[in-house]
Amino acid sequence: MQQTSTLLAPSILSADFTKLAESVAIAEKAGADWLHCDVMDGHFVPNITFGPFIVKAIAQCSSITIDTHLMISDPDTYIPDFINAGSHQITVHQETCAHLHRSIQLIKSLGAKAGVSINPATPVGTLESILPDLDLVLLMSVNPGFGGQKFIPSSLGKVKQLHDMRNSLNPEMVIAVDGGVTVDNAQDLVSAGADALIAGTAFFKAENPAEAAARIRSASR
Predict the structure, then answer these.
(1) What's the CA gap between 140 and 198, in Å, rounded?
(2) What is the pLDDT of residues 23-36, one digit of tens each?
(3) Which one is catalytic: 33, 41, 135, 178?
(4) Known catalytic residue: 16?
(5) Considering the domain boundaries, does residue 1 fall inside one?
(6) CATH number of the domain to which 84 belongs
C-alpha cells in the first residue's frame, strides 16, 4: 500500500472523558486520521469501557474516520449498533468469531469497512484465508484490556510477516498496530510495514499532543 505519511489514530480510551468533545477537537487539530474507539466487555478482555452511545457522541462532534475496535464476545450481535452509532470501520477479533467470514460480510453489508485483529499470541498465518476480504488488519502489540502497557518487541516480526502476506494477497489492505506505540518505536513499526499506528497514552498524555502526533506521522519506510 502506498501512502504519503503514516496514519495516526489516537485511542479515545486515553482521553479525558469529562472533556470528550475537547479531546476529539485536540485529536483533529493535531492531524489525526482516525479516532480509535476501544470497546471492551469484561468477558473477552478483563475490562469494561463503553458502548454505542459513546461512539455516537464522538460521531456528533467529529469529522474524521471513527475506527471501532470490538474486543467483545459475540460481536455480530452488536455490529449493527456500532455502525448505526457512526462507526466508519469495525474491527473484530479473530479469536471471538466462530464464523469470521460471516462477521466480515455483515460489517460490509452495513456500509462500513471491515477489519480483523489478533492478539500477540495468535499467529499471523491464521489470517491467510480471510486476508483478501479485509480492509484492515489490526495487530495487537500488547495483550488487550488496558491502556499504557509496554510494547511487546516480537510484534515487529509479526508486522513484517503480515506485510509480506498483504503484498501477495491484498495490496490495498491497511496494517494497523495497537499497544505500546510511542514516538520512539513508530519508525521501527512503519519500517516493518505498518500503515496506521494507534496511540493512546503517547498522544493524549503527551505534554504536547500535536508535537507527538507530528513525530508519529512523520515515520516513513
Answers:
(1) 10
(2) 999 999 999 999 99
(3) 178
(4) no
(5) no
(6) 3.20.20.70
